[in-house]
């Protein structure tokens, strides 16, 4: 019978110090303290709709006005939020000079399912260092980016980052209507975001349900070589990310879970730290002084 996971920080520190290939798999709980609403949390986004049903290619084809209002709402929320201490701890840990103090000569990549851009903003806020020659990516946004805009025309598919608020005038204020539970406006396709290159209708640059996540080949290689996997703020229900920790364990690696509450499968972890990850994660990585 497997042992229950440990919550002993000192024991985790020993494992961390001996690990050479570390990955973190992050989900919505990482951004909860920043004020980013979640799909599955209490209340969730857009109570009047099943938010998950809006994150599909079929939903966009059927009602691009509704889907764009949903993503406009999320964009506006994200623009008002700031990275929290957990984002900052992971960003600091991605710095080789800082990481070497607690896990000498190790590698690290954050694999995030989040699309809110807060992890990238935390990385951007870190002082530049001489570890830029490291060929391993510091972060992989496997589900895309909320602020990417992609052309829907097959022959174009132009992608660009767009932080304009609102992204088009017709969406201005619709986030307040949705918060209030009001009837959504039906915005003509011609007034919704267009490709800046060819003028065709554009879509949000996130990976929708039924679509293939980004970087799966790179992530697979990182998972196979990892000897420590940090699971941060995710209920581990969306695959393929939900299977990464188990794969690390199968080849002899350790798993540490950082979640607010118990979640499915966390009894199989080697370490389980319950509580706000913006508190537990900096402490576990010995980076509280970085905040």
UniProtKB/TrEMBL annotation:
The cellular component terms of Gene Ontology attached to this UniProt record, alphabetical and capped at eight, are: mitochondrion; nucleus
Q: Name one GO molecular function term.
A: NAD+ binding
A Pfam entry, by short name: SIR2
Subcellular localization, as worded in the UniProt entry: Mitochondrion
The record's listing under InterPro entries reads: DHS-like_NAD/FAD-binding_dom (IPR029035), NAD-dep_sirtuin_deacylases (IPR050134), Sirtuin (IPR003000), Sirtuin_cat_small_dom_sf (IPR026591), Sirtuin_class_III (IPR027546), Ssirtuin_cat_dom (IPR026590)
- For this protein, what does the record note about how its cofactor is bound? Binds 1 zinc ion per subunit.
Keyword Endoplasmic reticulum annotated? no
> Where along the chain is substrate bound?
71, 74
Active site (UniProt): 143 (proton acceptor)
List keywords of the entry alphabetically. Answer: Metal-binding, Mitochondrion, NAD, Transferase, Zinc
Q: Which cofactor does it need?
A: Zn(2+)
The reaction(s) catalysed by this protein are:
N(6)-glutaryl-L-lysyl-[protein] + NAD(+) + H2O = 2''-O-glutaryl-ADP-D-ribose + nicotinamide + L-lysyl-[protein]; N(6)-succinyl-L-lysyl-[protein] + NAD(+) + H2O = 2''-O-succinyl-ADP-D-ribose + nicotinamide + L-lysyl-[protein]; N(6)-malonyl-L-lysyl-[protein] + NAD(+) + H2O = 2''-O-malonyl-ADP-D-ribose + nicotinamide + L-lysyl-[protein]
Annotated binding of Zn(2+), by residue: 151, 156, 195, 198
**Which segments constitute the Deacetylase sirtuin-type domain?**
2-291
Q: Cite the binding residues for NAD(+).
A: 27-46, 113-116, 233-235, 259-261, 277
Recorded hits in Gene3D superfamilies, A to Z, give: SIR2/SIRT2 'Small Domain (3.30.1600.10), TPP-binding domain (3.40.50.1220)
What is the first-listed, main subcellular location in coarse terms?
mitochondrion
Domain characteristics, as noted in the entry = In contrast to class I sirtuins, class III sirtuins have only weak deacetylase activity. Difference in substrate specificity is probably due to a larger hydrophobic pocket with 2 residues (Tyr-71 and Arg-74) that bind to malonylated and succinylated substrates and define the specificity.
Which PANTHER family does this entry report, sorted A to Z?
A: NAD-DEPENDENT PROTEIN DEACYLASE SIRTUIN-5, MITOCHONDRIAL-RELATED
Question: What role does this protein play?
Answer: NAD-dependent lysine demalonylase, desuccinylase and deglutarylase that specifically removes malonyl, succinyl and glutaryl groups on target proteins. Has weak NAD-dependent protein deacetylase activity; however this activity may not be physiologically relevant in vivo.
Output this protein's name.
NAD-dependent protein deacylase
Q: Which organism is it from?
A: Heliocybe sulcata
């Amino acid at each position: 019978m497997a042992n229950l996971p440990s919550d002993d920080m000192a024991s985790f520190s020993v494992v961390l110090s001996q690990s050479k290939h570390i990955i973190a798999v992050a989900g919505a709980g990482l951004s909860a303290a920043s004020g980013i609403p979640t799909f599955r949390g209490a209340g969730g986004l857009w109570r009047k709709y099943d938010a998950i049903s809006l994150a599909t290619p079929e939903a966009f084809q059927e009602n691009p006005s509704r889907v764009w209002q949903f993503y406009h709402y999320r964009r506006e929320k994200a623009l008002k939020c700031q990275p929290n201490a957990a984002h900052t701890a992971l960003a600091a840990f991605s710095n080789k000079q800082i990481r070497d103090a607690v896990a000498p000569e190790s590698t690290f990549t954050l694999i995030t399912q989040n699309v809110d851009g807060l992890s990238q903003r935390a990385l951007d806020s870190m002082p530049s260092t001489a570890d830029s020659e490291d060929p391993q990516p510091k972060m992989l946004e496997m589900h895309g980016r909320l602020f990417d805009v992609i052309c829907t025309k097959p022959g174009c598919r132009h992608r660009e980052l767009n932080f304009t608020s609102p992204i088009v005038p017709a969406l201005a204020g619709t986030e307040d209507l949705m918060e209030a539970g009001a009837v959504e406006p039906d915005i003509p396709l011609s007034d919704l975001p267009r490709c800046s290159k060819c003028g065709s209708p554009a879509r949000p640059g996130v990976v929708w349900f039924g679509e293939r996540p980004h970087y799966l080949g790179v992530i697979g290689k990182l998972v196979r070589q990892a000897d420590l996997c940090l699971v941060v703020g995710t209920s581990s229900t969306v695959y393929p990310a939900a299977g990464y920790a188990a794969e690390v364990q199968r080849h002899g690696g350790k798993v540490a879970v950082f979640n607010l509450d118990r979640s499915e499968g966390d009894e199989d972890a080697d370490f389980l730290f319950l509580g706000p990850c913006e508190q537990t994660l900096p402490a576990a990585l010995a980076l509280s002084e970085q905040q």
